[in-house]
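Dear colleague,

Thank you for sharing your sequence with our group. We've completed the structure prediction you requested, and as agreed, I am returning the results in plain text so they can be pasted directly into your records. Please verify that the sequence below matches your submission; if there's any discrepancy, let me know and we will rerun it promptly.
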Amino acid sequence: MTRQQASDPWRTRVAAADWSAITDEVNEFGGALLPRLLTAAETVSLREMYDDDGRFRSTVNMGRYRFGEGEYRYFRAPYPEPIERLKQALYPRLLPIARDWWSKLERHAPWPGSLDEWLRMCHDAGQTRSTAILLRYGERDWNALHRDLYGDLVFPMQVVINLNEPGVDHTGGEFLLLEQRPRAQSRGTATLIPHGHGYVFTTRDRPVRSSRGWSAAPVRHGVSAIRSGQRHTLGLVFHDAA
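Please find the predicted structure tokens below.
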């Protein structure tokens, strides 16, 4: 193991993924399963942060706002090391996909080569609030279909990581994507994300082939009802909020 691998295991895990296959799957379905990004011990550590008020800038009760049922909290910046390292490692892997999508849709791709540069652009535009999310669902909780936009500057993909063991810590809680196809019925997918694994998915819309070449298909995401137990997830958004 090299010194860099030892000091940044999250980058090593991201680099070990088959990014060609992930790109093909995201292009086909709007989302793709990622390899294990967090160890069991790291998921426990992140779950235990939920009750540490000092780590978070705000808390949202989903039932109050008709977002579903359950609760989530926005981390304060600077983030805990695993979150920051994963965001830094994932951004350059997702960037070529994002640029390809915007090229197909004949849109200007505003994203620079590094996450730090992109976040500076967000901050200069008034989007200064941190967006990494820790979500906690109990029995019968769920998340309504939605999109995490937060401002005019949006990165077109984001990542969610399951911090619990499906079938052991919880049943239900599949991750849902609903894609509105051009002049066609919507298409849905459901994915049960394994413990510690990530799932990359469309934030707002993505290109799909149509009779006119490429059209933008809006995509929303959510979570099916938790049948039993408790489910925590970490959400990594690559733009900050207004």
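Summary note from our side: The chain is about 25% helix and 35% strand.

Kind regards,
the structure core
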